[in-house]
Structures are given as C-alpha cells and as structure tokens.
Amino acid sequence: MAWDEWEQLKSEAAERASGNMQLNRLPDDMGGGSGRPPSSAGDLEVHQKDLVAIGKEAHTLYDQLWDKARLKEAVDGAAGDLTTQGFALGSGLSHVSTKWSTQLNSLLDACAHISNHLQVTRRIHDDDENYILRQMSSITALDAGFDERVEPHEAPKPNPIYGDDKKK
What distance in Å separates the CA atoms of residue 154 and residue 43, rounded to the nearest whole number? Predict the structure, then answer.
C-alpha cells in the first residue's frame, strides 16, 4: 500500500466518523435507556423486609460470635501454662490467639456496621418518604388555595395583605 493510498483511507475514515458518536449501552429490548420503564433484566430492587432480615441476621451473628468465639482468656491461659512448662507450643498458641482475636474483632465490627447501617438506612428512607409526602400534600393544599381564590370568569383579586396598588 502506497503512502498516498494510506492517507486517503485515513481521511475517508475521519470524514465518516467526524459527525457520529456511538455510546455503549444495552440494547433497547434489555432496558438500555429506551425511555420505557426498566425491564426485569438486571434491575435492582430491594424491599424493606429484605433489609430488615439482613440487619437482623447480622445482629444475630454478632451476638453468637460474641458469646461463642471469644476464647482469648482460656487460650492465653493455656499458652502461658505451656510456655511456663517449657513447651515451644506456648508461644505459637499465643501468636494464634492474638491473630484470632484480631480477625474476630474485625468480623464483629463488620457485623455491627452492617446491622447499624441498615437500621439507619431504614430510618433515613422513612424520613425521606415522610418529607416527600408532606411536600406533596402542601403542594396539593396550595393548588386548592389558588383554585378557591380565583374563579375562571373573573380577574385575580389583589392580595389584601399587600393593599391596593397605588401609582404615584
């Protein structure tokens, strides 16, 4: 291929693509921005009962771990006894106990975080829902007030709070 032919192909390709833009998206039949309501293909939907169940399970797991997995005192006591008796296993057991406690505390923190986060999320969404309902009902009341004040056949009356419009 000659240099001139290469330049010509490049310029033709640039002309074809100069005014076009292509966005990567899902096909229209899969809910990819067609303006239709989302389809069941890949939609995320979470219900309050699901969040409550997850939070409850995280709290239950936390309680069980707290009650049954904390072995530090017993294991450290055994490690101390083994070390005192001259067994090398004592220091190894102490090391394992320290690592176990570190990992257990991380897991306990994660369970508590999940449980607390879902409780806070529920409260926030309830507050948001109540706020939206209040705003919508105040708009409805405001609309009703406008409908009561102005009849369709007469001109709007001046607001008595501001008085008459006097020109100087």
Answer: 51
